[in-house]
Amino acid sequence: MAAQVKICGLNDEEAIDAALEAGAEFIGFVFYPKSPRAVSAEQAAELSQFVEGVCKVGLFVDPDDALLDEVTSHLRLDMLQFHGSETPERLARVRAEYGVEVMKVIPVATKDDLAAAEPFYEVVDWILFDAKPPKGADLPGGNAVSFDWSVLAGFKCPVPWMLAGGLTSANVAEAIRVTGAPAVDVSSGVEERPGVKDPAKIAAFVAAAKSAA
Ligand SMILES: O=C(O)c1ccccc1NCC(=O)[C@H](O)[C@H](O)COP(=O)(O)O
To answer: Which residues form the N-(5'phosphoribosyl) anthranilate isomerase (PRAI) domain (predicted)?
Structure first.
């Protein structure tokens, strides 16, 4: 079965259209003010008002309830992605209160890091294995860095999961082959510069992921 694809950090209509036309199953909006890809709740609502048939994901980093309330009162998100140091207890509460799917990001460098996902299996719908941010990075994700994919080879995750970190149209097929990832997530690899998506790169990435054996 072809891998599912999430295009993250979308902030303009052209890029959203490119993701939908290419066949991405998930589109992501970043609600983290320090990010060059950040959108406001109002912007995301406008951008997604006519978008149907894909899973709309909101990305947050240790958000308080006020931010979650603000965003979810403006638009219907299908999934909330958490890229900070949220605890399983916090995510269980959020999932129950907001009635949407929840995805927890687990930063990975070595095989030992995979154990950090275990406490979340009972309380989230998805796990996203992403590269650890480089030392001194301003952002906890979206840094265009990969990790050693072989740490996921043969790994059995009891919940649906995605692979992210430095993926591009040139390496995504190999990443899927090595890890067996059922879904992949990309941001930097489909941009012309941080915060500016390239529709042609989006199309090429989705095609490469979908054609991976
Ligand atoms: O994209 C951001 O600016 C960002 C900010 C804060 C936390 C996470 C962020 N991005 C995460 C992602 O877009 C993806 O989930 C993933 O890390 C892919 O990143 P990339 O290596 O850029 O493809």
So the answer is: 5-207
